[in-house]
Amino acid sequence: MNRLIRRYIFFSLALSLACFSCGSNDDDDDATTTAQSGDCIVTNVVLGSLKCVRHTTSSTGEDSTYTVGVTGANFPMYIDQINQEIYNADSLPVGTDLSKVTFSTFAHSGKSIVIRNAETDVDITFSTTDSTDFTSPRLVTVNSKSGTMKRTYTVKLNVHKEAADSFRWQRTAVNADIASLTDQRLILKDGVLYDFGTSGSHAVLLTSRANDGANWTKSDIPTAGLNVKSVQLFNGKFYSIAGTQVVTSEDGINWTPNGSTQPLSALVANGTQSLFGIYNGSMLSSADGINWSTEGLDEVQPLPETNICGLRLTSRTYDSVEDILVGGMADGNASLWRKTVDLTGTYSYPWNYFPITAEIKYPYLALSHASLMEYDQAAMLVGLETDGTLSNFYLSRDRGRTWKDEGYAKPDVGTPTSLVATADNDSFIWLLCGGSGEVWKGRLNRLGWDSESKVFRTKGLQ
């Protein structure tokens, strides 16, 4: 029996079970009906046009509202025949008016359909094309063609409580140890935030669980000359540079030499299979932090020298491909390079330079204390402007070619003396501010929303 036939038989059996599961209209145990006449299920639901009230602020600062239309068909209704529930898994926009809801389709296999009156608790005829109040869940019942069976569904319409693309920030701590840091590097490892920093003339580490952020533990790093800006997480261990040696650490506190003397001025990025560093105008790579090879460059252009930050960008299309971005400043100007890595080893690509000219409308920016992170399926850049204030959050959705401000709200951090940022596994962005010691976390609202289940549900066809 081929797969198509098996799937057809399985669907037919499931539909038959739903039909026979319709309950009796009375307590008469002798009341029986055939599957055809007892068929009383909802088969397809599509929302009609809805209204949504939005808020805006005029040029004079006055609040006002306006109404826009919402195409209900863009928010599919899911029919859970097992639990007898009907709902939209993708919530409607904030401000959608649920007091006047219509349906373009509310198909069923019964004779009639009624809805429970919210005030009298009495079933009344349900006209799906008339406006109906769904500000709270409603009970809708399908009566079978025989008149002896019925099936009742709870119909619930979900609406977002907050705007999808707004940003909400929370200050979680003001920490004196973070305030003392002049250079910082923030890394997430196993649910813990590791803030490597320079305090005075020595390196320190501050840690806090990502689900906390209020309580930070300080540890002095005994390794002399540790380059905190070079710390990279690679193959589950921390790597950095101390003097002329690459050093490694399991806990971020105790560091040991990794091989002999290495000719590196900075570790700048990590990929799945390689570490990347810079020395004397060349880009180097290593699979173990000991043996280093010179990388190819597609242009003779200076590599970043200061405010260096790197990022591994996962591919949205292929598991075997990733991009490495390394940005910073060279000769006082912004500098950005990208390498595409074929993890299968079939192809090898050089580093590509992104020229920054007047013709480029949204180039990589020259920011101090810059951080790169992956956020909302894009590369995100943030740092400090020349006046010491927090920059906008710039996103590149084309793997580094353009960097656009998408209007994310910023917290009021003043003018930090140093800044570092990263994103955690719950889509929170963390900002740690030297000078003030403030710790902030924020998230794009829609990245924190829970989704209704779409598994093992019968989705209405449109």
* Level-1 CATH class name of the largest domain: Mainly Beta
Mean pLDDT metric: 88
Dominant shape: elongated
Poorly predicted runs are 1-20, 25-37, 455-462
Which CATH-level-2 architecture of the largest domain? 6 Propeller
Structure characteristics:
DUF6242_C, signal, 36 strands, disordered C terminus, Neuraminidase, 462 residues, mainly beta, eight-stranded mixed β-sheet, Immunoglobulin-like, 2 domains
Give a quick precis of the structure.
This protein has 2 helices and 36 strands. With 462 residues, it is mostly beta strands.
Please explain how this structure is put together.
This protein is mainly beta and 462 residues long. It folds into two domains: 42-156, Immunoglobulin-like (Sandwich), CATH 2.60.40; 167-447, Neuraminidase (6 Propeller). It contains two helices and 36 strands. The chain has helices at residues 3-20, 176-179; strands spanning 23-24, 42-47, 49-57, 63-71, 77-80, 85-88, 103-108, 112-116, 123-125, 138-143, 149-156, 167-174, 183-189, 192-199, 202-209, 217-220, 232-234, 237-242, 245-249, 256-261, 266-270, 275-279, 282-286, 293-294, 306-314, 321-330, 333-342, 352-353, 368-375, 378-384, 394-396, 404-405, 418-423, 429-434, 438-444, 458-459. The strands form nine sheets. Strands 1, 5, 6, 8, 9, 10, 11 and 36 form an eight-stranded mixed sheet that branches. Strands 12-35-34-33 form a four-stranded antiparallel sheet. β15 and β16 form a beta hairpin. The protein is elongated and about 85 Å long. Mean pLDDT is 88; it is low at 1-20, 25-37 and 455-462. This is Exo-alpha-sialidase. Residues 1-26 form the signal peptide.
